[in-house]
Write a structure and sequence with these properties.
CATH class: Mainly Alpha
Number of helices: 6
CATH architecture: Orthogonal Bundle
Oligomer: single chain
Strand content: under 5%
Order of helices and strands: HHHHHH
Distance between the termini: 35 Å
Shape: globular
Structural class: mainly alpha
Largest sheet: none
CATH topology: Helix Hairpins
Helix content: over 70%
Length: 156
């Protein structure tokens, strides 16, 4: 029984290592994380319903999961193919396309969700608070540095 729990925790450890390594090394994943944080912050200002929040969480998980899979496909293809290959390019392009489809779908859902003019006025009123403006500026600066980060495509 103890060995089963150790194996489960070890598996979670590997998963978290994969996520943290992807955050550290993949600029596109960091861009998606900044988008998730931005939409989350805006959703709080907008006072989304529980149903809308659920939709956002599902979309966040979908886009981030597909970006992790895209990274896995890219690394696997790079490991297997030492020379340029049309099949390798097709695999990488298809994986990147999956991320793009999910991200575009998420943007469309967010635009439809947040396009109510009444709520825009409410958000505008909330953004006049000096502390919120400072928080927004700090977040933008943080996001720019976070996204820039360090990108590395070392082959092990």
């Amino acid at each position: 029984m103890i060995h089963m729990f150790q194996a489960i925790f070890r598996g979670f450890g590997y998963a978290f290592q994969g996520i943290f390594r992807t955050v550290k090394e993949e600029r596109n994943f960091r861009i998606h994380l900044v988008a998730v944080l931005s939409v989350t912050w805006f959703a709080f200002l907008y006072e989304v319903t529980a149903g809308q929040a659920l939709v956002l969480v599902i979309l966040f998980a979908l886009v981030l999961s597909l970006e992790l899979l895209n990274t896995a496909v890219e690394h696997t293809v790079d490991l297997i193919t030492k020379e340029p290959s049309l099949l390798a390019k097709k695999a990488k392009d298809a994986a990147a396309g999956a991320v793009l489809v999910s991200a575009l779908g998420s943007v469309i859902v967010a635009v439809l969700m947040f396009c109510d003019p009444v709520h825009w006025a409410m958000v505008g009123e909330k953004m006049t608070s000096p502390i919120r403006i400072v928080c927004l500026i700090v977040f933008i600066v943080f996001a720019l540095f976070f996204v820039k980060g360090r990108t590395s495509h070392k082959k092990d």
